[in-house]
Design goal:
The complex is a heterodimer of chains A (247) and B (251).
Chain A (H helix, E strand, L loop, with lengths): L3 E10 L2 E11 L4 E5 L6 H9 L6 E6 L2 E2 L8 E3 L11 H5 L1 H4 L6 H10 L15 H14 L4 E5 L7 H18 L2 E6 L2 H7 L2 E6 L4 E7 L14 H19 L1
Helix pairs in contact in A: 5-6, 7-8
Chain B lengths: L1 H24 L10 H10 L1 H35 L1 H14 L4 H12 L3 H25 L3 H9 L4 H37 L6 H10 L3 H29 L4 H5 L1
The chains are: A alpha/beta (247), B mainly alpha (251).
Membrane topology (chain B): Multi-pass membrane protein
Subcellular location (chain B): Cell membrane
Protein name (chain B): ABC-type nitrate/sulfonate/bicarbonate transport system, permease component
Chain lengths: 247, 251
């Protein structure tokens, strides 16, 4: 069970105000996307949650426990896969567990099998394609002892086709496991396709300017992306974002 | 691998043939320049006379090399963990390499006598540096993305070091090891010149003072062979340990 709450978070770098009284909440088992233009402080939010930065003001709470400045409270998947080249796929996915306890290889193998990566368990990262590496990185964050997952634009470096494959794959895994997820992206379609809720960020200083509830039925499939309701939502979000950029 | 070695081997054979023919044609005395065949003959017929020298040198090289790489690794790790000390000592480390070993050797003999200690010290001195420098570089250039990832995952400093930085530096470490391996052979021979009762260096000094140039060449031949063997061992170890390394596949 994990619920993440950010309350009234303010962060400055020198003169520049990056986050101004930001509030956001991710409920248990919910998939929430943060959507915003590049440079809107999305990564800063992750660094605050991850404990690498200290907020100037405000509280970050995970399951009612304050985690300001506390490292390792969440499971994190960065933009680049960040796999260790000398570890095999199996050894890579158990890395985070290793930091806290003795890893359970059997469990890791089962997870790899469910993720369709069983045949690659003993391969090295350089032998895999970009999409495959991202899958391994995602399995690693699923296996982490922390139950709350933060994904930082994980598919931004992939080509359009691989990206769609990865989104479908991510959904199929997520729908089985149902961890709470905070997902950062600048791709509107991706956000709608994956999320329960989308928070649109304004830039400089960043704040949630609008919230969209995405109520499409799960499990979702590709066809959804061409439905009228989907395109309506996309249009609405697009206009909101346009408003952000025009200001 | 085999195709690549054809070219250098044929060049070597040509040089040997020219050498052989010219010593015969110009009638060069053996004590000035012995023909390759003469050297080979001496290498075979004299084996019983000098084999104990080789054994002694190999022992010296192996123990010196082991001490040298341990010292090098320890220095690298200490300097990496304590950046302030690195700032203070790194220039001294480099300066230590500006002193020619041949100048330092007599001093070491004065201080430590003719036993095995000064010899091991000389080998250590030539060996530790390449390893220390390459390992420090390897540790310092750990991919910042991976360090960032480890921090987000809540890894402690110690975990970041053992799970990330140390393995990340291994390929660099091996480039240092390769240099040290050949240096250690040279260091061993030099240390034996200073005074020892056996070893290739001793055999070489004895041979040159009695104008047995053929034996000097036999010594040189064995020094080369030892260098190659040590180098090959390091390469083999590297292949086994770095089997994950992407660039190794292309070679």
């Amino acid at each position: 069970m994990s619920t993440l709450v950010l309350e009234n978070i303010t962060k400055r770098f020198g003169e520049q105000m990056i986050l101004d009284k930001l509030d956001l909440q991710v409920n248990d088992g919910e998939f929430v996307s943060l959507l915003g233009p590049s440079g809107s402080g999305k990564s800063t939010i992750f660094h605050l949650i991850g404990g690498l930065y200290q907020a100037d003001q405000g509280m970050i709470r995970l399951d009612n426990e304050t985690i300001n400045g506390k490292k390792g409270s969440i499971s994190y998947m960065p933009q680049t896969p960040s796999l260790f080249p000398w570890r095999t796929v199996l050894e890579n996915v158990i890395l985070n567990v290793e930091l806290y306890q003795k890893p359970d290889k059997q469990k890791a193998l089962e997870m790899l099998e469910r993720a369709g990566l069983k045949d690659y368990a003993n391969a090295y990262p350089h032998e895999l394609s970009g999409g495959m590496r991202q899958r391994v990185a995602f399995v690693r964050s699923l296996l982490s002892p922390q139950s709350f997952i933060c994904l930082d634009e994980p598919f931004s470096s992939l080509d359009e086709f691989t990206r769609l494959e990865m989104q479908k794959w991510l959904l199929s895994i997520w729908e089985q496991e149902r961890p709470s997820v905070l997902f950062v992206t600048h791709n509107i379609e991706e956000a709608i396709f994956l999320s329960d809720r989308i928070l649109v960020l304004g830039s400089k200083p960043a704040n949630v300017i609008k919230e969209f509830s995405i109520d499409f039925e799960r499990p979702r499939n590709e066809k959804l992306t061409l439905s009228t309701a989907f395109l309506e939502t996309k249009k609405e979000i697009y206009q909101t974002l346009r408003g952000v950029l025009d200001v | 691998m085999f195709r690549k070695s054809i070219l250098p081997i044929s060049v070597m054979i040509i040089i040997l043939i020219i050498w052989e023919v010219s010593t015969r044609f110009f009638d060069i005395p053996t004590w000035v320049l012995p023909a390759p065949t003469v050297i080979i003959q001496e290498a075979i017929s004299g084996w019983d006379n000098y084999q104990h020298h080789i054994l002694s040198t190999v022992t010296l090289i192996v123990s010196g090399f082991a001490i040298g790489i341990s010292v090098g690794l320890i220095i690298a790790i200490v300097l990496h963990i304590l950046p302030k000390i690195r700032e203070a000592l790194y220039p001294l480390l480099i300066m230590s390499q500006n002193i020619p070993i041949i100048v330092l050797a007599p001093l070491l003999v004065i201080w430590f006598g003719f036993g095995v200690t000064p010899k091991l010290l000389i080998i250590t001195l030539v060996c530790f540096f390449p390893i220390a420098v390459s390992t420090i570089d390897g540790l310092r250039h750990t991919n910042p993305e991976l360090i960032h990832y480890m921090k987000m995952a809540g890894a402690s400093k110690r975990q970041i070091f053992t799970k990330l930085e140390l393995p990340y530096a291994v390929p660099q470490m091996f480039s240092g090891l390769k240099i040290s391996a050949t240096y250690s052979v040279m260091g061993a021979v030099i240390s034996e010149w200073l005074g020892a009762n056996q070893g290739i260096g001793v055999y070489m000094t004895l041979a040159s003072s009695s104008f047995r140039t053929d034996r000097v060449f036999v010594a040189i031949l064995f020094i080369m062979i030892l260098c190659l063997i040590f180098f090959a061992i390091i390469i083999a170890a590297e292949k086994i340990i770095l089997k994950w390394h992407p660039s190794k596949e292309d070679q």
